[in-house]
User: Fold this.
Amino acid sequence: MSRVILSPEMVGNEFTMPQSSLRLSAPEPAVSSPIMPAQIGSPHQPIALVTANKAAHKALLAKLTNLIYPYSFIIFALLFLLAGSTGVQVGGNYWSAHTLGRIKPVASLKVPTHSIIGLNLSVPSDQLAAQLQAVTSQPVSLTVGDKTVPIKPDTIKSWLQITPDATGSKQYIHVKAGNISKSLTDVANKYVRAPVDQVSVTHDGSSSIVVAGVNGARLSDPGSLVAQAAAVAKTVMDAKGMKFTTPLETIPFQAVTPAAFTKLIEVNVVTKQMYLYDNGQLTQNYPVSAGAAETPTPLGEYHIFSKLRVQDMKGFNPNGTKYLQPHVNWINYFLPGGYAIHGNYWRPLSWFGVVNSSHGCVSLPDDQAKRVYDWAPIGTTVITHR
Assistant:
């Protein structure tokens, strides 16, 4: 490298090189550092030393080469794996970041689901009919007390819920234990009945039973059907048949008299007499005309459920002809089907207490019928007997 030498000048006591014209200086000699080794080819280093250094370097390089050569393949493989794994990691991180940026978070995705409780079986859609046939046709029975009744296929089918999957290629069949217990309880309740009290009345010093007593029945352990339904819900799909049981207990009837009723209407269809009781006390006695032999008055214990001031009555005679009786007064219906206590203006007074001629109703003269109508509210007990 060249440098510029300026003209000499005098500055105070300092003396510089004599000023001369501008010229390029010769190259500076290399300066050896007291710490670092001198550069090869330095003007201060002998040629023989430089040559020796070169030979030493070559020998050292040869030794390193001989040492590394046997392991060169392993070293190369390790370097390759290191470079490859680094590239895969970098590429994977980039691809993951790139892909995840385009995917919605899981919380934002709406995945279609079916809320299925009690899932028992999943079948291909084309096998659904056969599977349902096997399940609903299996023998199932319920024993209530000493009565055993079969459970119908339609009832068994009501225990199942069918849910298709999203594609429609598969059907989920699951059992609803609540439906099982409800249907079994409905069947069992047909055998539950209230007791019918035995009613006795006394006329002219003679007592007679006008209503025969009948024991009642109730389920002694209603919860057992719920427990059985929950257990069977797990095996319904096996189609191997099922048996349910529930015990009944007897409710004994009581023997009562008219005193057991606030208001009681007693009708003897044989003697053709009506008796009115107020809190067990006989207050009125009227002769009546009840149903004819071809159209008898039903016997039993009933209650007035509807009252009409006046109505046109019509229907059919035993021979099939129609009848129409207009403006019938003071009507008290006690049994569905047209059975009532009502006024009768078309028969003579001598008819009542003597002839039964109605289509099943109990009739009496209008003035007496009005008294009954005014006295007996809806709910009044009516007992008809022989």
